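Side project, low priority. Logging it here so it doesn't get lost.
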Amino acid sequence: MSDLDLRLVRYFTVVAEHRHFGRAAVALRVAQPSLSRQIRSLEQRLGARLLDRTPQGTRLTEAGEVFLPLAKALLRSADEAQARTKAAARPTRITIGYMGNLFVTSAVRELRHRHPDADVRVLHMDWNEPREALLEHRVDAAVTRMPLATDGLDVTVLYDEPRALLVPLDHRLAGKEYVTLDDIADEPVPRVLDPAWNAFWRVDPRPDGRPAPDGPLVEDLQDKLEYIAAGQAVAIVSAGLQATAIRPELTTVPLEGVEPAHVVLATRAGDRNRLVADFRKIAKAHLTEPAFEPR
């Protein structure tokens, strides 16, 4: 089987599809006698008769019935191998995902400068999308925040961000130089369905072992902001968040005594796309700190 000619395998699948040598020859744009010889050559290599001629056309033998799905799978694998190899050697497209309040412009601009013929795209993602978007090939690289399940991914920390408390302007803590977890010991903090995200962004449990006070369960960012603006909860966020830019009635206060947030670049493990490799290098050089100061 090591010298099996894929061209002959493809000829066989076309004859099997049409069940007629004449129609298959037309579809393949080869002479019918030549096609017949090619099929006989394939049968000789396999040591089995694949097709029988009938008055109505052609039918598969028992061996042909067995070989047909294997032949189709073999051709699909060959096509995939060719496409993936070509993409790795001469990548032409990359989609870079990013989360809200994370700016990738400088790195994307540099990648486009280095690869002027490449199709470089960007895609905004919700907080819970990066891993799924990568594994589903909707994005090829994701600039996001931890926590993130890393199995099947390559993850590189780009920089750390301090964390802050997001509160309404009329909150008792608004305007303070900084706050600590003791200041919000009894303040409800919104929850999401992701346990790891809750643990980090609610600091739950707190260092003394007590659970963080439960706030409303939210799925959408706008719902979360509405609860905070209404004074029903506070939230722990990235200190780089421009609160007044998203809701004029909100502000942030630096939160001290907690681990910073980690901004990372995530890609699919083992991805050999050179554009992905180049973007990783560029991101490490260009995305090294928050794009703006907290407000």
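Brief comment: The radius of gyration is 29 Å.
Revisit when time allows.
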